[in-house]
Amino acid sequence: MTVFDLTGRRALVTGGAQGLGEGMARALAAAGASVVVADIQDSGEQIAADLPSDGDRKHAFTRLDVTSESDWERAITETITAVGGLDILVNNAGIEITGLITEVSPGDIRRMLEVNILGTTLGIKHGLRAMRPDGAAGNGGVIVNIASVAATIAFPGISVYSATKSAVDRLTRVAAMESGKLGYGVRVNCVYPGLVPTAMGAGLANDMATIGLFGSPDDAVAAVVEQTPSGRLGTVEDIADAVVFLASDAARFVTGAGLPVDGGMGM
Ligand code: NAD
């Protein structure tokens, strides 16, 4: 038993059907938590079914569009019913649409604002309501929001995405402050992942080349690695382990923080 042990904790991970969110669901389950995978993709059901389990520990899937308030209300209720409570919420779902600021369309701006800011805000709202003392779960807990190294540096081609991730950073700080001042017993932190070659990360490298910022996707990746003191891209496990840390008692005095997990790219 270590301070990283999550036995008995109940976690909800948004965007858990693939990529970083899938890795977070696996890592939280490996640390002993019951995990509810939430996503707009029903393939998340299989991810939940494959999570490591033992004894009576359950995992579940809930269909959740993070931009829908009624979906959040239903997902929180389903989570508490399925796994018996809620102690950890990871607001991971996000989208990235690459484009030069001279070319960006109002539709693409709105889509990123909706998922990354509205979706994360609703997650924080309903997570705090559920976990605070008068909530349906009522035992306090932890919220981990997934921002990005893009919130801390200026990288070309991702202006609006970067702005939304800076918003996630600020939302985290104010939510942590309100939670502390109002006695909710919920720590709120965020992570700034560096580039990880998930569908989103690989797509970003391709798009950077397509819009002419780099000669090829490999050149875009090389530019990121060149800017990274650790000398490599991130892995899904690098990010997932940081989420486990923030969710665990090892981080019991950590709130309102943003943790770079980027090999030093953002320093
Ligand atoms: P991904 O595109 O591989 O996966 C995103 C997941 O979110 C998918 O399962 C998708 O279905 C889900 N999703 C999208 N919109 C949703 C919505 N409205 N409601 C519920 N689920 C929704 O992306 P990823 O690389 O796994 O990224 C996960 C998070 O990490 C995102 O917030 C992203 O911005 C952030 N991030 C990623 C990187 C990277 O390099 N991959 C770097 C920094 C930050």
Summarize the structure.
The protein is built from 8 helices and 7 strands, in the order βαβαβαβαβαβαααβ. It is an alpha/beta fold. α1 links the parallel β1 and β2.
Helix/strand layout:
Elements: E1 10-14, H1 19-30, E2 34-39, H2 44-49, E3 60-63, H3 69-83, E4 88-91, H4 106-131, E5 141-146, H5 159-181, E6 186-193, H6 199-210, H7 217-226, H8 236-247, E7 258-261
Parallel strand pairs: 1-2, 1-4, 2-3, 4-5, 5-6, 6-7
Helix pairs in contact: 1-8, 3-4, 4-5, 6-7
Bound molecules: nicotinamide-adenine-dinucleotide.
Nicotinamide-adenine-dinucleotide binds at residues 14-15, 17-21, 39-41, 64-67, 92-96, 115, 119, 146, 148, 193, 195-196, 198-201.
Distance between the termini: 34 Å
What bound compounds does this protein have?
A: nicotinamide-adenine-dinucleotide
Catalogue the unreliable spans.
none
Radius of gyration: 18 Å
**What is the name of the CATH architecture of the largest domain?**
3-Layer(aba) Sandwich
Could you describe the 3D structure shown?
The chain is of the alpha/beta class and 267 residues long. It folds into 2 domains: 10-194 and 235-258, 3-Layer(aba) Sandwich (Rossmann fold); 195-233, no CATH class. Helices cover 43% and strands 14% of the residues. The chain is built from 8 helices and 7 strands, in the order E-H-E-H-E-H-E-H-E-H-E-H-H-H-E. It has helices at 19-30, 44-49, 69-83, 106-131, 159-181, 199-210, 217-226, 236-247, and strands at 10-14, 34-39, 60-63, 88-91, 141-146, 186-193, 258-261. It has a 7-stranded parallel β-sheet, sandwiched between helices. Helix 1 (19-30) links the parallel strand 1 and strand 2. Helix 3 (69-83) runs parallel beside helix 4 and helix 4 (106-131) runs parallel beside helix 5 (159-181). The longest helix has 26 residues, at 106-131. The model has no long low-confidence stretch (mean pLDDT 97). Nicotinamide-adenine-dinucleotide binds next to helix 1, helix 4 and helix 6.
